[in-house]
Structure formats: C-alpha cells, structure tokens
Write a structure and sequence with these properties.
With about 140 residues, the chain is mostly helical. About 90% of the residues lie in helices and about 0% in strands. The protein contains two helices and no strands. The protein has helices spanning about 10-25, 30-130. The termini are far apart. Mean pLDDT is about 85; it is low at about 1-5.
Length: about 140
C-alpha cells in the first residue's frame, strides 16, 4: 500500500473516502477512486470493530455483575445458615437453662418437703412423748 493509500477511519474517514471515490471517478483516476474505496471500507471495519468491542465490554461488565451477584447470594446463604445455627444453639441453651432451673426448683421443693415432713415427724414424736412419756422413741 502506498502512502496515498493510507487511510483515515471514523465517520470523517468514510466521508473523505466517498469524496475521493467521486473525485477519482470524475477525473478518471483509478488510484484515487481505489484509495477512497479503501478508506470507506476501513472506516466501516473500524466502526464495526468499535461496536463489537463495546458489546464485548458490556458483556464482560454484565458477567462481572452476575458473578458479583452470585457471590453476594452465596454469602447471604452462608450468613443465613450461620444465623440459623446460632439461633438453634441459643434455643438449646435456653432450654437447658430452663431444665436446670426446673431441676433445681424440684430439688429445692423436695428438700423443703423433706424438711416439712421431718418437722411433722418431730412434732408427732413430741406429741406422742407428751401423751405417753414412759415409752421412748
């Protein structure tokens, strides 16, 4: 490709290419017409490449967003599982505490009952001794 055939791209390059084609056709210069055609084609190719690159970048951003969403979803799920596990542990601990408290309450009640029974037995023996002092118990 000669220096004359080096082309500029973009919308301006496409317009210049068309102009060169028209001037080349009007003057009967095939080289100028060919250069204009090449410049127009290159502008089209560059525009298509830019469009495809922009689309690829958009898809890459979308993929990154989707990957990020999936990560967030997985983290949320993991956090929910941990929270449920903690809640279950806390519930079990509260149940154990209630059971221990109930057992202590039952033990204390049994001790009170035994003390009450012992006092009643002592009073009954005292009453019996008062009635029949000869017989020792």
């Amino acid at each position: 490709m000669s220096e004359q055939e080096k082309v500029a791209g973009g919308a301006l390059g496409k317009a210049v290419g068309r102009a060169k084609q028209a001037v080349g056709a009007a003057l009967g210069r095939d080289d100028l017409q060919r250069e204009g055609n090449l410049q127009e084609v290159q502008a089209d190719v560059e525009a298509e490449a830019a469009t495809k690159e922009a689309e690829a970048e958009r898809r890459e951003r979308e993929a990154e967003i989707e990957a990020s969403r999936a990560d967030v979803k997985a983290e949320r799920h993991e956090t929910e599982l941990k929270a449920a596990e903690i809640e279950a542990e806390e519930k079990a601990e509260r149940q154990r505490a209630r059971e221990e408290l109930a057992a202590k309450g039952d033990e204390a009640a049994a001790q009170r009952s035994a003390s009450d029974l012992q006092r009643k037995a002592d009073r009954a023996e005292q009453a019996a001794a008062a009635i029949d002092p000869k017989e020792e118990r």
